[in-house]
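Annotated sample (chain length 272).
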Amino acid sequence: MSLSILNNIPALEADNQLNITTTQANKYLQELSSGSRINSGSDDAAGLAIANGLNANVAALNQSSLNATNATGTLQTADGALAQITTLLNRSVTLATEASSTGLSTSQAKAIDTEYQALLGEISNINNSTNFNGTAIFGTSVSAFTSDGTTSGTVSIGTTVVATDTTALALNGTALTTTADATSALAAINAAISTVSAERGTLGAAVEQLQSASTVDTTESQNLTTASSNITSADISSVVADDTKYSILEQTGVSALQQANQQAQTVLKLLQ
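Output written by the structure step:
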């Protein structure tokens, strides 16, 4: 082997290999500290693009599930109000049935009608005052926008919550002051009960659809999160093994570089 003082080739080779080893060792240390296999685009450009797309889908699905949950809460609030209206209508049936019989004095009939009118007033109050998050419910459309982050995966689910005041229920102007009026009112009250029952059925169907959509969105989000994690997450046991390997190589590389530099010192011995 010839000796040269111009270039120490073994030292250059050892230094180059040490740089490669150090770069790899630093990469595995970064993976251990972050828990992620992909910490920059250079680690896996294709994997990073796929993972970012999946994470966007997950974000859309999580918000969609929340949208469906909020819409469900709105419709359930409406259903609770309708349940109370049904209770008031059932009481009205009792009063109308009582007033339809003969033999009541004028004062008794008036007392019954007074209670009945109060019930009608409360029905309208419930219709007008029921709200969700400060927004009126009855007479409005309630819907949830759901999406998986793609154009084809966009759906809007909801229904219209119809008004249920005394005007909508055709109870305005009804009274129980006479047997004839009471009989007429009884028919209108029974029709109103049927209307409210049908509306509760419509709301119930919409709630089931929204809950189903929320469940699907949540499940899909979990699956996509798993897929993204499989792409980006570091295999810790494998990374630890590789980190140990390159740590040892780094130490041996430093030792090799020292020996290569020491070889150049033999030239000085020839000059002594």
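Annotation: Strands lie at 131-132, 135-136, 140-146, 155-161.
Annotation: The first strand starts at residue 131 and ends at 132.
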